[in-house]
Design goal:
mainly beta, 4-stranded antiparallel sheet, 1 helix, about 0% helix
Length: about 200
């Protein structure tokens, strides 16, 4: 019926985004990392949100994103989108950041990790989920020695206030700690739910 070209793909980019359709809007993430809203009936572009820097654009930046999470609060639809070390919350109708969330619509994944955030790299390749008013997200991390832990965290879906963390690699005294053969001086990372989350409401 119609065709749309993002215009930002390269020879090394990927397209893994699962589109969402809400109220006639089709939302997805392009290979270059832009969040795009189309008219689902005609394919007309309504808006595009671009968090890339000019340097990233010039370098042909590409990323793996499996899409966005949609949640409605007080009659306003929001899109929760991750790129590198940041979470962006976007008004689903206008494509503009929701200023009352986090710091002007942006949240830093380096915060609230129970440790020094300086050497950490975590991101979210898969969309998070919303339960009640909790936005819950698992992390994408490196897979080599010295990688960050893949903890699961929750934030207030309205404000971005940090709510809780589930340590996928248990700390001393936590459930499962006794099952690990800890080696002194070793860095423990990984154990991340990179494929996404589901919620059992019961």
């Amino acid at each position: 019926v119609w065709q749309y070209n993002t215009g930002d793909h390269t020879s090394r980019s990927f397209f893994q985004s699962s589109p969402l359709i809400v109220d006639g809007f089709l939302y997805f993430v392009s290979p270059g990392g832009r969040v795009i809203a189309l008219d689902a009936e005609t394919g007309r572009e309504i808006w595009a949100f671009d968090a890339r820097t000019q340097k990233m654009i010039e370098s042909g930046y590409s990323m793996v994103s499996r899409g966005v999470c949609y949640w409605e609060a007080d009659g306003v639809g929001r899109l929760y989108y991750t790129m590198e070390m940041s979470l962006y919350v976007i008004n689903a109708k206008t494509g503009r950041l929701v200023s009352e969330f986090g710091k002007d619509g942006i949240l830093d994944f380096g915060e609230n990790l129970d440790g020094d955030p300086t050497p950490v790299f975590v991101s979210g390749a898969s969309p998070g989920v919303v339960f009640e008013d909790y936005f819950i997200l698992g992390m994408r991390i490196g897979e080599a020695s010295g990688s960050s832990p893949g903890h699961i965290r929750a934030w207030d879906a309205r404000t971005g206030e940090f709510r809780w963390i589930f340590n996928t690699i248990p700390k001393e005294g936590e459930f499962g700690d006794e099952t690990w053969e800890w080696v002194k001086g070793e860095t423990y990372g990984g154990a991340n739910p990179w494929g996404g989350l589901t919620v059992d409401e019961e």
